[in-house]
Amino acid sequence: MAGYQLRLKSLVFAFALFVSGVSVVKAADVSWAELNDAQRQVLNPLASEWDTLRPWQREKMLDIASDYPKMNADKQALVKKRLTNWSRMTPYERENARKRHQQFNALSADKKSELRKKWLEYQQLPESERAKLRAESPDTYTDADLN
Fold first, then answer.
1. Which of 4, 34, 54, 59 counts the most CB atoms within 10 A of its CB?
2. Signal peptide: which range, if any (predicted)?
3. What are phi and psi of 63, to 5 degrees?
4. What pLDDT score was predicted for residue 106?
5. H helices then E strands: how many in the chain?
6. CA 29 to CA 58: how far, in whole Å?
7. Domain-by-domain residue ranges, the chain?
8. To 10 degrees, what angle do helices 55-67 and 2-28 make?
């Protein structure tokens, strides 16, 4: 009897995974026209390319759109800014941004803290000084938004 119950639980669990997997695929398969007004408003910077995004990219953007109303005004502005910046990037720039993000996430907490501190110091410099640093070391100093 215990074996039967275990198989039944496994079957129910497998069915639940299958059903949830189908719903994820459907959610990520939504065309731009099928998004609701609130989603389109948040994701507007990606409107022209939405229908060409990969399913995992759409799913991530839909998660952002669903979290957006819960964010404070500053966080919402940051999300809009980042989506706009992302939409203007070339595929090559996006791939480099992903790699830098992965490299940053792989760092120790101390190293991350140190880099954040240096970034804040850089941001506080006058624009003329930042321009000078960027000219001297273009690989080190970019206009990337690392907040």
1. 59
2. 1-27
3. -65, -45
4. 94
5. 7, 0
6. 8
7. 2-88
8. 90
